[in-house]
Structure formats: C-alpha cells, structure tokens
Amino acid sequence: MNTDRKHVPFSCYSAAYALPRIIQCAPNLYLAQFAFMKLLPAKYIIEQALNRGTLTRGAKVVETSSGTFALGLAVVCRELELQLEIFTDPVTDKGLENRLRSLGSEVFIVTHKAREGGYQRSRLDALHARMRLLGDSCFWPRQYETPDNPAAYKYFGHQISEMLGADVTLVGPVGSGGSTCGTIEVLRRDSPGARLIGVDTFNSVIFCQPDGERKLRGLGNSLVPKNVKHELYDEVHFTSASLAFAATRTLHERHAIFAGPTSGASYVVGHWRARQFPTETVVVICPDEGHRYVEAVYDEEWLKQNGCLDQGVLLDAPASEEHPSTALPPWNRYCWNRRTREAVLNALEEL
Fold first, then answer.
1. Residues spanned by the domain of 64
2. pLDDT tens digits for range 142-152
3. How far apart are CA 184 and CA 234, in angstroms?
4. Which one, of 102, 39, 31, 43, lies nearest residue 67 by Cα?
5. Residue 60, SS3?
6. What's CA 131's distance to the chain center, in Å?
C-alpha cells in the first residue's frame, strides 16, 4: 500500500460513498460493492431537479420505497436541508426505519395491500393522495420511471471502463432497472458486444413470472417499471430466497465481502458465468453491505425459523426452461436475447 498518496477529503457522505469498490474475487470475476447503491441515483435525481428548478428549497420530497432508495434520499435531503416523506410498508425493517427518522425523514407505513400490485400499488396510491394535498409544494423523484435514474449510472459505467475496459459481462439484480440498464448503455457505447445478465426472483412480474409472495427483497417487482429496458438483457436468471441467502453467506466466508442478499443472488450467477466463460470479464453488482441483515441472513436461527436453512444449498449451475413464466425455484436461467417483454410473452404462444 502506498501511504504517501495525497487524497482530497470528500465534501460529504454522499460524495464519498456514491460509487462502489471494485474487488477481484477470481481471475475473471470482479465484484462492485456499494455501501448502498441507491445513494447514487438519489443524489443525481435530486441534484438534477434542483438544477432544473423542478425542485425548490421550500418543497417536500416525497417517494415510495421499502429499501435503500429511501435511505439514499434521506442522506441527500439531510445534506441539502430538504424535507422528505417516505411511504413504505410493514416489510421495511426497523433498523432502516429508525435510520430514516434519525435523518429527519417522515415515514408513513402503508398497511393495506392491494389485490393487484400488492404493497407497491398501495404505497403509490397513498403517495398520490398526499401529493394532491401538497399540490405544487412537493417533488416526486419517480425512481421507477425517471430517466435520471439510469442516467446516474454513467459514473459507474465509466468507472468500470477505466478499470477493466468496456467489453465485460455485467451481472446485477433488477428492481427499478436503473442500475443494470443505465450501466450497460454506457458500456455499449464503446463495446456493443458487452453482455448484460439480469438477476430476478421468482414471483416477480418484471421478466414474465406470475406475481406472488417474495421472500427475497430488494429485487423483483409486482409492477413492471418503465426504467426496465428489456431489450438490453442477454440473459435473465431467477433465484430463490434460500439460494440467495446461502450465496450471501458464502460470499462472506470465501471473500470476506459483507453484503446483502441481492448481492448474494448476483454473486451466485456471476460466479457460475465466470467459470463457464473464462475468457469473459465478469462484473457483479453488489448493491449494499450486510449490516441490515445481521439478525436475518447471517443468523442461522432466523434462517431456520423462515424455512431457509435446510434449503440453503449453494448450487453449481442453473436449470433452464423454455419460457420464463414456467421457471421454478431454486435457480433458473433464460436466454432473453435482447428482446422486448412483449416479444418474450408472444413466444409463449408459440410453444
């Protein structure tokens, strides 16, 4: 380590932690670990809104989130002295809720679950009702549809290109679609052959699975976000919660990388891809660190109580189905081949 290097201090927390650390785990396998990835788009969206005048200093920022996008907004709003209201649901862990409140955010827990769209629909309904009351004195970041979400990841794309080159295989979890789509668009400007593998979970509608209950949080969706550009994906993998939890623990045991379960889901796919294609440079997106999951994924008693301990076996390879709608746990691979969602749905009729 060169201790003589001079570093300029970061101006604030968001500047220091917006981009990940790139860690090599195998000859052709690299992990991009964020402190919490949604800080990057939260920072970019708010700063762009202030620059454009669509967000003014006296207005409230309002958003629906049950994860780290809420935390990213809370950090940025605290730094910029903006008011924030978050609409979430009972699945949000108490630690995250406490941190949001500590940063000065108002947190509203939506307990009603919509028949179609689940909590995400109910949260949106509550958010819209609040916005009608606030009128022009509020700003909604719209992480699922604003082009500023994927645009924020240009910085991450440049980071990868400068360090590893643009011709990589990018593996990442898909929730809003911002990170995977925004990053691959930057990489393909220099290398059109760069590959994108999306990691989803079962019972998520994004890639044509039927909607249902999901134990694995932080990826997947009960609605199809506009920021998911399906035609950018080469492959899609579906992982179960149990497999993701096992992979998360393995990632820590093998490489001392302390991460959350969406990172584990991406790691098991990236690890397989790197072994299958040793000439590719595989970059795995790890969206957050493991602090929120110490009493869950990293606790054997919790895993046992949730029926995930015995099922948590790290598999060597995925199964394959003729269509993603029929994919079954614990791990399934589908060659998406850069098609639209409609094209893949239509392919089901031809089977």
1. 39-139
2. 999 999 999 99
3. 11
4. 39
5. strand
6. 26
